[in-house]
Amino acid sequence: MGNEALQISLPLVLLTILTFSAPSATASASDRSYNVGDHVPLFVNKVGPLNNPSETYQYYDLPFCYPDPVIQKKESIGEVLNGDRLANTLYQLNFRQDKNGERLCQKKLKVAEVAKFRDAIVNDFYFQMYYDDLPVWGFVGKVEDESWTISDKGTKYYLFKHVLFDVLYNGNQIIEIRAFSDPNHVVDITEDVDIDVEFTYSVNWNATSTQFQNRMDRYSKASLLPVRLKIHWFSFINSIVIIVLLMGLLTLLIMRRLKNDLRKCSNDEEEDKEVGWKYIHGDVFRYPSNMPLFCAVLGVGTQLLIMVCILFFLAIFGVLYPYNRGALFTSLVFICTLTSIVAGYTAAAFHTQFSVIGWERSVLLTAILYLGPLFVISSILNTVAISYGATAAIPFGTLLAILLIYAFLAIPLHALGGVIGYCLRSEFQAPCATKQFPREIQRLAWYRRTHCQMFIGGLLPFSAIALQLHHLYASMWGYKIYTLPGILFLTFIILIIMTSILTVGLTYIQLSVEDHEWWWRSVLSGGSTAIFMFAYSIYFYARSNMTGFMQLSFFIGYNACICYAFFLMLGAISFRVSLIFVRHIYGAVKSE
Asked: pLDDT of 175-209, one tens digit each?
């Protein structure tokens, strides 16, 4: 009991520490106060095609006006992983000082530079800047099709040469900024000729009553349109209805039959022969094949579950919010490192319940089961990003820092958790003794085999989360801001409940046909929802406007990593729930 109590209390303590020790992402009002005329730096970040969110480049990869020298802003690990590359600029946006038609620079664009701008306009490039930590976007240019006119000039490409900044302030603080590209100030870059361009900008300052602490609400409200909000609630209610129906079905069909089985077991009659799952009581608690890998799945799955819960808490408490630059990736690195102790402890504690030999291998597999494939896929994608010259390419310094964090923090914490699990080991509490030789399993019908159970165990939970999953993909691989972490968290709870209910039902059906190899089957059945999630991601990509090899590789690669994480997490949960169920029914038989 002490071992199980520690197994529950350790994640809770870690969750509390991480939640309340995480730095607040909301800027302090005292740090953002300015006097009239104060210089507030505007940083340029990146440019990229609108339809390919992963394919972004540094702002000065396009031949815009640039300062001498260009100074890169120091960034956190999360900002670098997010593809942010902030740099200084020639724009001068002093606090509460209006400007009209201010000259940025006079530049002679060569033929190659004109072609670069034109290619960017063809691909619908946007630019992103940051002013007082507020993001601002605009487009590089526009395309006009004039083939319908009398002159029949065909398609024309225009470069915006004037940017209007509209800034709102409240007292001595900046509340909001928008950038507008003036369609009346353009230059035709259709032809491959050298062009003289004068880039200009204007700044308008206006007062607002919005408070500083509410200035990020603008980005949140972008996704709270009434139609979308109704869709979110419809999805949530739909999931609840599916759960109620599923629970009712299982209660009527399975639990009723289980009670009948238990009643038969309590009678000393020949009807005992009809109870199939009772015959395998001597094999049902036999530990599965490849025990180290099984323990590693439980360890990593538990770690990932805690990580997801912590991220939800941070989002609900406002620590993580839209366009908080790099905060999500920084939190992931930080939380993944610290929760390594939970993964090592869980794997070692479960392994030592059956054998005190070989738990080290379980801990070692735990350290590489998820992070190993993640590192391989990230390395391949990083090579692709380097070949494209994209900001998604991780610099060598950042890559070295992540490897050092893993080598000197994550791995030692894995080992420490393993040692704790070994020192606090306990015997596996099984209601029934395990026979020396396993019982032979009869050949099963096709609909009772693993692949069929995986299909059923994955399809129903996926159907309950499909609409929320679409919104999540639209947020990850598009520009729809997901700002309802509460509903997303409830959907996650629904997913866990549905997966648990179905796995218990499928485990009971498996035991009823005297198939005692339920350990791995419960993991595969529960984790199969991730396969449907990945399949839906392919469908989402096919229906989107994303194009190009880089975007395709990033989409497939990182979605595979995300779905693999869900497979491990849901698989670990499914086994834990099935183990509780199996212990209960065989314990009830023993007591009777």
From this structure: 999 999 888 899 999 999 999 999 999 999 999 99
| CA 501 vs CA 38, 199, 244, 260, 269: distances in Å | 61, 63, 11, 20, 32
Q: How many CA atoms lie within 13 A of 5 on its CB side?
A: 2
Mean predicted confidence (pLDDT) in 226-240? 60
Contacts of 143 (CB under 8 A, 6+ apart): 121, 122, 155, 156, 157, 158
Q: Determine contact, residues 315/66, Cβ cutoff 8 Å.
A: no
Can you give the pLDDT at residue 481? Answer: 66
Q: DSSP characters for 427-494? A: ----SSPPPSSPPPPPPPPGGGSHHHHHHHHHHHHHHHHHHHHHHHHHHHSSS-----HHHHHHHHHH
DSSP letter string, 201-232:
EEEEEEE----GGGTTHHHHHTT--HHHHHHH
Distance from C-alpha of 352 to C-alpha of 367, rounded to nearest angstrom: 18
Name the strands in the sheet holding 125-131, side by side, starting at the edge strand that comes first in the sequence: 57-58, 42-49, 125-131, 134-139
- Helix then strand then coil, % of the chain, to nearest 5: 55, 15, 30
Closest CA to 307 of 237, 392, 374: 374
**Nearest to residue 356, comparing CAs of 437, 430, 418?**
418
Contact between 44 and 137 (Cβ < 8 Å): no
Please say whether the beta carbons of 181 and 163 come within 8 A.
Answer: yes
Residue 572 tokens read as 């670990």
- Structure confidence at residue 227 as a pLDDT band (50, 70, 90): very low
Q: Is 180 helix (H, G, I), strand (E, B) or coil?
A: strand
E-state strands within 210-361: none
Element (H, E) at 173: strand 173-181
pLDDT, greater one: 142 or 281: 142
The pTM of the full predicted model, rounded to 2 decimals, is 0.87
- The dihedral through the CA atoms of 212, 218, 219, 224 has a sign that is positive
What is the rounded distance in angstroms from the CA atom of residue 205 to the CA atom of residue 152?
42
User: CA nearest 255: which of 591, 520, 584?
Assistant: 584
Would strands 99-109 and 186-188 be described as parallel, antiparallel, or unpaired?
Answer: unpaired
What does DSSP say about strands 57-58 and 42-49: parallel, antiparallel, or unpaired? antiparallel
User: How far is 132 from 34, CA to CA, in rounded Å?
Assistant: 11
Rounded to 5°, angle at Cα 42 from 23 and 326: 30
Number of Cβ within a 10 Å radius of residue 523: 25
